[in-house]
Structure prediction request, 240 residues.
Amino acid sequence: MMNMTATEEKKKSSTESPPPPTLFPSLPYDISLNIVARISRIHRPTLPLVSKSFQSLLASRELQARRTLIGKTEKCMYLCLKFVGNPKPIWFILAPTPTQQKLIPIPSFPLESPTFVFGKHICLAEMENNVFCAISVTFGQLFWRDTNTEYIRWRPVKGLEELKIPMYAVVNSCGGTRVRVWWEASGQNKKEIWCSEISLERRGVEEVHGVVEWSKSVFTFNSSAYGGFHRFLQSASITH
Prediction:
């Protein structure tokens, strides 16, 4: 049998798939993939600090396919903020558990394009199966209207009298009958991003009541690190 020429060897090596990254040297790759697939997206920004091998895996479709296969998808809320003096907007992910809710910076939006982005001041809440209400935050108050009628009339959401929302805030859906309201608050030598999650209930034809599930500061920043907060840009609720 004739030996392959150097050109043929080079061509063969260029067409071969690269070997999978070594995640845990003592474990087979398939088991390692199962382990990483079970790690929450909240902890993903820290994984490349452990090993550079994680970086390429976290961006791969293979990992997402494995998460779907083993039933480890998560419902994640992403928020894009613009800061003064920083030309590039910054994406954050909101920790999903009530005891840990805070915004965590991430390198980029996890999808190729933010196809599930909601508006900043109006969103939809599904009150029943395929029955939606439009929810708006205006001048520090939540309003709603029925999307199934041609007559447009905004009514205040009742039950939220104790919730103090500033004049400028944004709202987005987090699935089903729940929405989240975001705003900036200034304190002593610091600025914060606040978030309130509100569950909604339709009562009759002309009333929607809201209940505050939780309300807290989810991100604290200083001017030296971020250059000052400018505005909310986008938000997205994704199950993946």
The chain has six helices and 13 strands. Confidence is low (pLDDT under 50) at residues 114-118. The first helix runs from residue 6 to 15.
